Amino acid sequence: MKKPIVCLALAVSIPIIAFSQSITTASVFFAGMSEQYGALSDYSADITISTGTGSRVQTMEATVYFKRPNRLRIDFTKPNEQVILFTGDTLTIYVPAYRMVLNQTIEKDSSAGTANLTTPQGLSLLKRSYTIAYETGAAPQPLEEGSSEQVVALALNRRSASETFRSIRLLVLPGTKLIRRIEAWPISGSKITFDFTRYRLNTGIPDSRFLYDIPPNADMLNNFLLEE
Q1: SS3 label, residue 26
Q2: CB–CB of 43/197 below 8 Å?
Q3: Paired residues of 45 in beta bridges
Q4: 227 pLDDT higher than 60
Q5: Is a pLDDT exceeding 60 seen at residue 179?
Q6: Cβ distance 105 to 223 under 8 Å?
Q7: Disulfide-capable partner of 76 in 62, 131, 162, 205 (CB 3.0 to 4.6 Å)?
Q8: In sequence order, what E strands does the chain have?
């Protein structure tokens, strides 16, 4: 009488074990993302930044460049000529509307240079500061209603009230594990959406891309960030 019971138990448990082993947890999936970004020597991508809703949506368009270990440049076409540059120890922002250059020296242990979440440093900061879970499950879903583009949706919630964003939604391309879209909800203000398209990976971006000639007619403000 015991043999049929044992056989039945094995028949039931084997597919359950196999199924559980095939599931990739959100933490493991996120670790795979970090490994992918960490393995890149450089990348560039087109980025669209949107804020507001409905008829009040405001958009910015740019090209982002990243080169290991931590150099980052964002060249905007909307607003035209605006630039954000991080070289590892200095953050430079040019705001053409005011002809103003903002310079900030960044301490080595500061997180100010990791504002771009699509870098190894940015992903490491997210892992420390937010819980990570699948939004609905590990299976890819449409980027948005009616879209044929498939993404894996991750839901991130802050661990402490000191974080800038209450929650973040990461939509990740399942094949490459590159971020397709970031939706972030700040403590105050409307949702901010970052769309990344046309990734170019390991193209050998030259160091000269991260040099910036300050416009001669621009005013300069040094160390503009307030100390805590």
Answers
A1: helix
A2: no
A3: 64
A4: no
A5: yes
A6: yes
A7: 62
A8: 42-51, 58-67, 71-78, 80-86, 90-95, 100-105, 130-134, 141-142, 150-158, 165-172, 179-186, 192-201, 219-222
